[in-house]
């Protein structure tokens, strides 16, 4: 979360966080562009920031006894990002159910708003021993932006 | 490619490479298990090894003027890998077309053959300027295991 | 470089950049804290930001035909950073010579200014083929903050 | 540890482990060579392998209530490694004291034995809460290769 992080509800009424940062050099590879696995860590930073802007950061969730484990991941690569590009990650809570939730992501180049990568991740709620549990009601309220 | 790398055709007649290595400590995260993005780099190591065992490593492909750019990626996480686990990545060339190809992956724990993560990646053939090109015929022959 | 990046000369008259960001989850390891190699990428982000705030980003340097190759690296670890911590990297251009330069770094936790990690890196100037060259005079002026 | 891992005492009588693996693609950066932070994870893999070949892996050490925390790190970069290079990491237990120990490392290209990177790391013994403790006597015996 930086001063530039934003939170709003999109046209479909879904909660969305926008996170902005610059490509780091170590995220590039020998093809001269950002390595495809780096975007996966950007998705994670997007949803981290989502939890921060709604006032319920992952660290609080963990303290409350709940983690989110990734069970599915998908990405489509449209254009490459390059070192020093400023990018914007848009993270949308697409679906929130009793035991799992799905985020969708768009990574755009800040300079011209071109879509670079899109994707999604599905997560289940687990306790600290890794056992699947229902999403805590307090967490559900917060995630839905009704906290 | 290590002495333990294997290459064969599976029951469906598709070429498969098996790669074996140990989980590195830096691949873990604060949940005590391997971070979900690390498996994406294992998929890449799996297909790197695939190209090595067929005698046509990526480095040769690049020297011949062709790169493979990732355009789609998917993963399902079944069980976590942990530090020091020995894992086996099975990489299968699922589909080979004129301009793109698809690999599928299974990551299993060597000790008990339990499936940890499965996934796929689709790649298009590009020249060094990033423009989409047809897969070179020589490359196609090699990839199909008919080199 | 964010709105919070700062540039100034320290008590010894040396140019310093301050960069602020949050710890990403994938930077942690199974000990529950930030992995020691992650700080090395933060040092890099610190000097990247240094070049941005002086108006001569690495990307421009590369376009002008010069890269900086790391030849020595040192770090001391005082306290661990944790997920979600906001940290400040202070990057100082300690020495600037005809063919090499040295940056020093301090990583502090933003909340209480506690020193987490300190270190240094020495770099030589190379052309795109990796051959050592003199630092371009224009680059020297800029790096020294006299651009 | 692979079938190719070796353990011996060097000319100075110090215990040494040799670990062999190939450069992964994601370890490269836009300069076309291995990123300097990747070698730091190779040092770690070297000492992980050291603990495996002496029959006392980190995972066992952790189960026995002791971790090794990095307190100092140094590296010198002589020549770059490239994608697909086979490398050999030589890890030597240079010094073993009551509360801390130091490993030194050499990374060489397997094809021609050229030295690529050398370095060292100093570690203190900590319990799971991160408090400094004496190195357990059983661990000392094992690390010294007298287990």
3D structure, described in words:
4 copies of one chain form a homotetramer. By secondary structure, chain A is α+β, with helices and mostly antiparallel strands. Chain A is 21% helix and 38% strand. Chain A contains 3 helices and 6 strands; from the N terminus they run E-E-H-H-E-E-E-E-H. In chain A, strands 1-2-4-5-6-3 form a 6-stranded antiparallel sheet. In chain A, a hairpin with a 5-residue loop joins strand 5 and strand 6. The mean pLDDT of chain A is 92. Chains in contact: A-B, A-C, A-D, B-C, B-D, C-D. Chains A and C meet through helix 1 of A and helix 1 of C.
Please supply descriptive tags for the structure shown above.
homotetramer, 147 residues, alpha+beta, 3 helices, 21% helix, globular
Brief summary of the model shown:
Chain A contains 3 helices and 6 strands; from the N terminus they run ββααββββα.
Overall outline of chain A: globular
Overall structural class of chain A, as computed from helix and strand content, comes to: alpha+beta
Average pLDDT of chain A? 92
Helix-strand sequence of chain A: EEHHEEEEH
Largest sheet of chain A: 6 strands, antiparallel
Ends distance of chain A:
18 Å
Oligomer: homotetramer
Strand order of the largest sheet of chain A: 1-2-4-5-6-3
Strand % of chain A is 35-45%
């Amino acid at each position: 979360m930086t001063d530039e992080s934003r939170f709003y509800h999109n046209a479909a009424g879904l909660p969305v966080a926008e996170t902005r940062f610059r490509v780091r050099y170590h995220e590039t590879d020998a093809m001269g562009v950002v390595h495809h696995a780096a975007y996966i860590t950007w998705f994670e930073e997007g949803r981290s920031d989502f939890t921060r802007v709604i006032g319920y950061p992952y660290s609080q969730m963990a303290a409350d006894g709940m983690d989110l484990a990734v069970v599915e991941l998908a990405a489509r690569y449209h254009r490459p990002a390059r070192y020093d590009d400023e990018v914007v990650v848009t993270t949308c809570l697409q679906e929130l159910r009793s035991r799992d939730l799905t985020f969708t992501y768009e990574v755009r180049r800040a300079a011209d708003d071109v879509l670079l990568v899109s994707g999604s991740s599905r997560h289940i709620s687990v306790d600290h021993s890794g056992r699947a549990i229902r999403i805590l009601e307090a967490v559900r309220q917060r995630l839905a932006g009704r906290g």
